Amino acid sequence: RGPASPEEGVRVEVNVREPGIENTNGKSVIATVPKKDDEYDLEMLSDLMVELKTEYPEQDSASVLMEARIPYDYLIQVMDVVRAVEMPTEIEDEYELVALFSEISVGDAP
Predict the structure, then answer these.
(1) What does the alpha-carbon distance between residue 94 and residue 110 come to, in Å, rounded to a whole number?
(2) pLDDT grade, residue 6 (50/70/90)?
(3) Tens of pLDDT along 75-98?
(4) Of 7, 28, 29, 35, which has fewest CB within 10 angstroms of its CB?
C-alpha cells in the first residue's frame, strides 16, 4: 500500500435538521446553513459543497443524513445539490453540470 492520500479519512456529511443544515466531517460541525424564510438555503449549501470539493478534489463520496420528520422531497433536493453544481460556461447564458460528490449514502441523522 502506497502513501496515504490527503483525502484519506476525509468525510463529507450533510445533516438535514428542522432548523437548518449542518455540514460535518463525521466528528464535528464545520458549517451550518440556517433556513432562510423558513426554507432550506440550498444556494448556500451548494457554495459550501463547491468549497469542500475545491479543498478535497479527490473526494467523491458524501453522506446525506435526515432527521425523521423532514419531508422526503428535501432529501432529493439536498442530494441534487451535493451531487453536482451548474457552472457557467464561456458561452453567455449557458451552464454545464459539474460533479461534486457523486457517491451519496443516505441515512438517519444522529
Answers:
(1) 40
(2) very low
(3) 999 999 999 999 999 999 999 999
(4) 28
Residue 31 CA: distances (Å) to CA of 18, 40, 49, 61, 86: 16, 14, 11, 18, 22
Cβ atoms 105, 63 nearer than 8 A: yes
Return the DSSP state at 9. Answer: T
Does the pTM surpass 0.70? The reply is: yes
Instruction: Centre a 10 Å sphere on the Cβ of residue 108 and count the other Cβ atoms it contains.
Output: 9
Residues 6+ apart with CB under 8 A from 99: 60, 83, 84
Closest CA to 20 of 74, 86, 80: 74
Is the distance from CB of 81 to CB of 42 less than 8 angstroms? yes
Q: Is 70 helix (H, G, I), strand (E, B) or coil?
A: coil
Read off the pLDDT of residues 52-75 as tens digits, 9 standing for 90 and up: 999 999 999 999 999 999 999 999
